[in-house]
Amino acid sequence: MPMDAPSPTAAPMDLSFDAESMLEGLRRWVECESPTFDAAAVNRMMDLAGRDLALMGARVERIAGRMGFGDCVRARFPHPSGDTTPGILVLAHLDTVHPIGTLAKLPWRRDGGTCWGPGIFDMKGGTYLAVEALRQLRRAGRATPLPVTFLLTPDEEVGSPSTRDLIEAEASRARYVLVPEPARPDGGVVTGRYAIARFSLRTTGRPSHAGATLGEGRSAIREMCRQVLAIEAMTTEDCTFSAGVIHGGQWVNCVATHCDAEVLSMAKRQPDLDAGVTRMLALKAAAPDVGLEVKRGVTRPVWEPDAGTMALYGLAREIAQGLGFDIAHQSSGGGSDGNFTGAMGVPTLDGLGVAGAGAHTLDEHIAIGSLVPRARLFAGLLERLS
Fold this sequence. Notes:
The structure is a single chain. The chain is an alpha/beta fold. It has two domains: 12-193 and 302-384, Aminopeptidase, CATH 3.40.630; 195-300, Alpha-Beta Plaits (2-Layer Sandwich). It is built from ten helices and 16 strands. It has a six-stranded mixed sheet, sandwiched between helices. Strands 4-5-16-15 form a four-stranded antiparallel sheet, covered by helices on one side. The protein has a four-stranded antiparallel sheet with strand order 10-11-9-12. The longest helix is centred in the middle third of the chain and has 20 residues, at 120-139. The relative contact order is 0.19.
């Protein structure tokens, strides 16, 4: 895996990053709310990011969404030499878990070295610093050894059901994949991710009037509660199970006919996840007069670090040390689109984004002081990979 030595006169430290201007640009992104299930909102975010990339000289393509999700943006930065060999894919998502209106509860706010906002940590902050890294290289007239492509997706927060094929097709044409998902709590990066499976469950009961004929009914909600307790009790160190969404009933004075739930399972090893999937699909209703249906949803394959990924990490660590800090690496729970590319065997480095905490909560925030160092690290990778 050839990786160029740094020029003695050109290094990430020489680039003119400025945290204040980065925050100004990032604020526009954060205040453009883009929850996954609101395709129009996600597309407004794609408009904003696509314009920023076009102003940098990218050839921007809009790829129409499907399955009810928003569009993708693919931005290619041709190499000055016209080289079309496999290059660097920067893979990021612009959807968030925060519904429209979250800004009223979690407004853009800055206090000391911390900045809050919906999606600022996962992962608009990281995506913006990746864009800024390339922007500064281009402003300085420093060409990357390889062509660079950004692929921005609309549905990562729900497992990328509409974009996995596009992600894998783009990765198959790349030499390296860089994923600016949030940094680990210790500031490290990600060189592997656990396998993940999602499931949809429906229980079916028998309706009755909850006041006059309660005993004639069979509650779908009651059955789902039994199932959730049994499912979460299956959790071991090898494979975890958790219910994250439940909807049931329609009227409080009616015994519920239907109840729906979504369950997430995660394992460090693919065989453990496969065993967990088998257990989930074998679940039965607790009583003969209620029904249970379990459907497997989207799955992320396990990504285990290989020699290519570890060499990529080694270069990132060398660059970071040259910038005055160190980065550890780890395999991580919580999926990303890096699961797909890493599992394909394409050298992938994840967790290159901004430092912070509170992902998916009303305390989501970033450490402002991490913006410039992490952007310099990203720029160093773009400039060194060949």
